[in-house]
Amino acid sequence: MLADKLGIMRTIPGFLDPALKLGQLRKGVSFASAGSGYDDITATTLSALPFRRQLWHFWRYKLLIRALLGPRRAERIVNRATFIISAGTNDMLLNYIASNRSAGPIAMLRYKNHLIARLSNYTQVMRMLGARRFVFVGLPPIGCLPIARTLLGRDPDGCDSDLNQLAASFNSRLIQLSNFVNYQPRMRSAYIDTYTIIRAATDNPQNYGSVFHISSEYCQDVL
């Protein structure tokens, strides 16, 4: 959707798409893997490509585009490209919380810092490969996601406030990382606050269109 709005292309093709044509490399590709995260264990658990493997594909992409356009043009394309990084929800919910449901706040804090440290390292690797423009997407209110409401929801609204606070705390560190990247020479970074957007929509859905009531009874068998 974002690529379409920017007039780049309707959808960003996956780098591993067998139908990918060399000419499409100039406009951009996706290295993402559904179910992955910043933690390698998350990717292993959910049978996805770990982040470091995605970086390896980025390196392969550079080799291909250098062969296609030459070193100078290839480097210019990578330098001017915008890299959108969005992960963390799978790490928190489907990896850590799912296997450590009794984890206390200190353990959660350590895991959050672990994820931020890994992302910081990944960002430095991407910088070494020529990336200069980053967009970091924050976590949503993960305590209100269906799996969290089913396993842990105990607040009046059915959410888990501890998880939401963890997401907000993670986002604060993500903003710090984004600001740090901005201070680096010839680097640009932005942060997308999905938490506030989604929370506003869930707290006051009537402000965003029609409201439909869905009973939790319809979801129990699925969840």
UniProtKB/TrEMBL annotation:
It comes from the Eukaryota. GO terms for molecular function: hydrolase activity, acting on ester bonds. It holds the Pfam family Lipase_GDSL. InterPro entries: GDSL, GDSL_lipolytic_enzyme, SGNH_hydro_sf. Belongs to the 'GDSL' lipolytic enzyme family. This is GDSL esterase/lipase.
